[in-house]
Design brief:
Elements (H helix, E strand, L loop, with lengths): L4 E5 L6 H12 L9 E5 L4 E3 L7 E3 L11 E4 L11 H12 L3 E5 L3 H6 L7 E2 L6 H7 L4 E2 L5 E3 L3 E4 L4 H14 L1 H11 L22 H14 L7 H7 L4 H12 L3 H19 L4 H7 L5 H12 L3 H8 L6
Parallel strand pairs: 1-2, 1-5, 5-6, 6-10, 7-8
Antiparallel strand pairs: 3-4, 9-10
Helix pairs in contact: 1-5, 5-6, 8-9
Length: 319
């Protein structure tokens, strides 16, 4: 069953941005989505300090971690010092009983300290990825990822990438239409392509190239039913294929082929959820030559074939 109860652990000097991220997604989702049982908790109920110096009133202690379906560890300013043993024990216990456990930014250091990332891939804010890898060599740190999903343990990159992780959780458990609804309410893209590398240095527009690239991406979204070869995209951007690929990677952190593939599959998910179109027609609308080709790519991304995905998420009541 998808998660319904969410507990976010707020350590002393917790990041206020992170509190806002999880509260916006799970504390007050838009109409038509589940009413999550959302709670902030800390070592004990009371006031918790924040990174901005503004105290935060927290009603719940660690007991809330023992009953939540989804446990999130929020980043905090003093992350170089591991949380107290009772916190680490509570995280281990939550994972052991089958809860989903996640963290973004430097909250990943708490999961690592609890041993929950050993043998797994994980990410954190790019600035501290090397430190996480050095301190916890049993963890495979993917410094460029916006988020990493390892099943029951998930980690996200820094700052606003908390939204990427939370939206991914909604998409994974409730489907693309639900994640799109949340993203639309927050005026966010429902899915960002690429990784953290695209944000390390902000490319400066040169001769209108960024504007042309944006126009090409918008055109591609509207023409998914067409082949969309890289040569055609480059031609529309008035660039050579090599220049286009380089510019595309700088702007999105991924390749044109991977970006188009992700776009096609995301649109297929939405059509499977919200329409009764035959899978063959959906395959045509998103640019695949046959339902068999769509099925191959869909299984690779989602782990289930399109028809199974539709039975799970198609026209599900989320109230």
């Amino acid at each position: 069953m998808p998660f319904l109860s969410v507990a976010a652990y707020a350590p002393p000097r917790v990041g206020m941005l992170a509190v806002g991220v999880v509260a916006e997604v799970f504390g007050a989702p838009p109409a038509g989505l589940p009413r999550f049982d959302f709670a902030l908790c800390s070592d004990r109920p009371g006031q918790v300090s924040t990174d901005l110096g503004v105290p935060l009133a927290v009603e719940h202690g660690l007991d809330r971690l023992a009953v939540a379906d989804l446990v999130l560890v929020l980043p905090w300013a003093d992350f170089r010092v591991p949380p107290p043993d009772p916190v680490l024990d509570a995280l281990r216990a939550a994972h052991a009983r089958g809860a989903l456990v996640g963290a973004h930014c430097v909250g990943a250091f708490a999961l690592a300290a609890a041993g929950l990332l050993d043998g797994l891939r994980a990410t954190t804010h790019w600035r501290f990825a090397e430190l996480l890898a050095r301190r916890h060599p049993a963890v495979t740190v993917e410094a460029d990822a916006l988020y990493v999903d390892e099943g029951r343990v998930l980690t996200g990159a820094g700052a606003a990438a908390g939204f990427d992780l939370c939206l991914h959780l909604v998409r994974r458990e409730y489907g693309a239409a639900a994640a799109n609804t949340v993203a639309r309410d927050l005026v966010l893209p429902p899915h960002r392509d690429g990784g953290q590398a695209q944000y390390l240095v902000a490319p400066v527009p040169e001769d209108g190239e960024d504007e042309r690239l944006a126009e090409v991406l918008a055109w591609a979204r509207a023409h998914l039913h067409e082949p969309l070869p890289v040569a055609e995209l480059a031609r529309r951007a008035l660039m050579s294929r090599r220049s286009f690929a380089r510019r595309f990677a700088a702007a999105t952190g991924t390749t044109p082929h991977a970006w188009v593939l992700g776009l096609r599959l995301s649109r297929a998910e939405e059509l499977l959820e919200t329409t009764e179109l035959p899978v063959e027609e959906i395959a045509r609308l998103v640019g695949y030559g046959s339902a068999a080709v769509l099925r191959e790519h869909f299984v690779r991304r989602r782990g289930v074939p399109p028809r199974t995905y539709r039975r799970t998420f198609g026209r599900v009541s989320l109230s």
